[in-house]
Amino acid sequence: MRESLTLDFCNVSIYDNYMVVVINEGVTVLLKHNNILAELAKDYFENKPFVYITHRLNSYSVDPNIYIETSKIDNLRGFAVVSKDYKARSNAEVEKMFLSKPFGIFSELEEAYEWANKMVKI
Q1: Does residue 75 register a pLDDT over 90?
Q2: 19 with 52: CB under 8 angstroms?
Q3: Does residue 64 carry a pLDDT above 90?
Q4: What is the set of domains in the chain, with CATH numbers?
Q5: pLDDT for 33-44, tens place per residue?
Q6: Residue 24 binned pLDDT confidence (cut-offs 50, 70, 90)
Q7: Of 23, 27, 104, 113, which sits most exposed with the smallest number of CB within 10 A?
Q8: For residue range 88-98, what is the model confidence (pLDDT) as tens digits?
Q9: CA neighbor of 50 nearest in space, from 81, 80, 91, 9
Q10: How many CA atoms lie within 13 A of 21 on its CB side?
Q11: pTM, whole model, 2 decimals?
Q12: The pairing of beta strand 10-14 with beta strand 18-23
């Protein structure tokens, strides 16, 4: 891990090829949150392909329209959801329809890491 950041709505871990985000319990992820995460991605991965991994340890909601904005990040090569929770995985299946980038759903972080490393090489 290159760096770990704590924001008021989440924790972010930055790696060479991906960022892992754990959103806090009860948060509703809005465009303002997305803008902050997009800015972090720009700062750490400018001109370098990367994957966004959301590790869904907590219960929170996401405005699906955010994925339309997320799709505009040129160097974003994929978006991964990691959760063992059936509801979180089901929600991810719906969210997947709003993103025009490769979208993976995994039970384990290691699976998402492997997928992310493959995606940045494509």
Answers
A1: yes
A2: yes
A3: no
A4: 3-121 (3.30.750.24)
A5: 999 999 999 999
A6: very high
A7: 27
A8: 999 999 999 99
A9: 80
A10: 23
A11: 0.96
A12: antiparallel
Neighbours of 100 (CB within 10 A): 11
- From CA 111, how far away is CA 120, in angstroms rounded? 15
Six-digit token string for 69 = 């904005």
How many Cβ atoms sit within 10 Å of the Cβ of residue 77?
A: 22
CA distance 16 to 1: 8
**Max CA distance (Å), the chain:** 36
Across 14-50, b (16+ Cβ under 10 Å) vs e yields bbebbbbbbbeeebebeeebbeebbebbeebbeeebb
Q: What is the mean pLDDT of the chain?
A: 95
DSSP SS3 for 89: helix
